From TrEMBL:
All residue ranges annotated as the HpcH/HpaI aldolase/citrate lyase domain in the record: 20-228
Keyword Metal-binding assigned: yes
Keywords per UniProt: Lyase, Metal-binding
Protein name (database record): Aldolase/citrate lyase family protein
Family membership: Belongs to the HpcH/HpaI aldolase family.
Length: 261
C-alpha cells in the first residue's frame, strides 16, 4: 500500500500492520518508481554509504513524491549541513547513524524540527516553493517529519532508555550489522547482538516508540513483528537487482544446458 509523505509519520506510529521498505543505493529514480508501483511503504535513500550528492538526493526525492511513496534519507551525520537539504527537498524524514547518547539524540531532533532549532526556509519543495506561509510550513513540517536514530553501538544499547525518552525522536533503527562488528559477535546466530536487539525492542515498546530493522527473511520479520518491531527494511535496490539477475541467469543457464545435453 502506498503512503503519502504527509501520512507516513502517523502511519509509522499507529499502523496495525508491519510496514515494508528498502534501501536505495543507486542514483535511479526509476527504481523508486518501481518500488512505489509495487506497493512498498517507504524507501530509505542511503546518503551515508552510497555516493549521493545533494542534486542526486533531490532527484530521488522528486521520484518518491511522484510515485506516492514515503522517502527517508539516511544522512551521514546529525548536522545541519546533512539534514536541512533533504528535508527542504521534501524528504519524509531523516535517519541518523550512531545515536548513542541523549546529547546526540537531542542534536538530531534540534536539526530536524523547527520548534527545536531547525533552520527555516519555505522556498524549496517542502514549502511549496513559497506557497506555504511561514507558520503553515513550520507547523506542518514539525507535525509530519519523521526523526529516526540508528542504534548500532554498545553504548547506545546501554543508554537506550534515556535515548528513547528524548522528545521528538519518533523511532529507532537497530543496525545489527554495525552492532555485530562493534561487539565482534562472530558466533552463529549472533547471540550477543540478538540480546542487544531484544533489549532495544522491549525498551521502545515500553514507551510506545517504533522500531525499524533490516529483516533477512519473512520468517525473521514475522518473529520480530510479534516482539513489537513496526517496520522492516527488505534488502536494497542493488540487492534486488543482484538476486533477480542471479536467479534469471541460473534459470536460463540451466535451461539451455538441458537442451544442449
Amino acid at each position: 500500500m502506498n503512503t503519502t509523505t504527509a501520512s507516513f509519520r502517523h502511519l509509522l506510529k499507529n499502523s496495525g500492520r508491519p510496514l515494508f521498505g528498502t534501501f536505495i543505493k543507486s542514483p535511479s529514480p526509476q527504481a523508486i518508481e518501481i518500488l512505489g508501483d509495487l506497493g512498498f511503504d517507504f524507501v530509505i535513500v542511503d546518503a551515508e554509504h552510497a555516493p549521493f550528492d545533494k542534486g542526486t538526493i533531490d532527484h530521488l526525492l522528486l521520484a518518491a513524491k511522484a510515485s506516492g511513496i514515503a522517502a527517508l534519507v539516511r544522512v551521514a551525520e546529525a548536522s545541519a549541513s546533512h539534514i536541512l537539504s533533504p528535508l527542504d527537498c521534501g524528504a519524509s524524514g531523516v535517519i541518523a547513524p550512531h545515536i548513542d547518547s541523549v546529547a546526540k539524540a537531542k542534536a538530531l531532533v534540534a536539526q530536524s524540527r523547527y520548534s527545536e532549532g531547525r533552520g527555516f526556509s519555505n522556498s524549496p519543495r517542502a514549502g511549496g516553493y513559497g506557497r506555504k506561509s511561514i507558520w503553515q510550513h513550520v507547523d506542518q513540517a514539525d507535525d509530519e517529519v519523521v526523526v529516526v536514530g540508528m542504534i548500532e553501538d554498545p553504548s547506545a544499547v546501554a543508554n537506550i532508555d534515556d535515548i528513547l525518552s528524548v522528545e521528538g525522536l519518533d523511532a529507532v533503527f537497530i543496525g545489527r550489522g554495525d552492532m555485530a562488528v562493534a561487539l565482534n559477535d562472530r558466533e552463529s546466530g549472533a547471540p550477543v547482538v540478538q540480546d542487544a536487539t531484544n533489549r532495544v525492542i522491549h525498551a521502545a515498546k515500553r514507551v510506545g516508540k517504533t522500531v525499524l530493522l533490516l529483516a533477512s527473511t519473512p520468517q525473521e520479520a514475522k518473529s520480530f513483528h510479534a516482539l513489537g518491531v513496526g517496520a522492516f527494511v527488505i534488502s536494497s535496490d542493488q540487492g534486488f537487482l543482484r538476486t533477480g539477475a542471479a536467479e534469471a541467469l541460473s534459470a536460463f543457464t540451466n535451461s539451455t544446458s538441458a537442451i544442449i545435453n
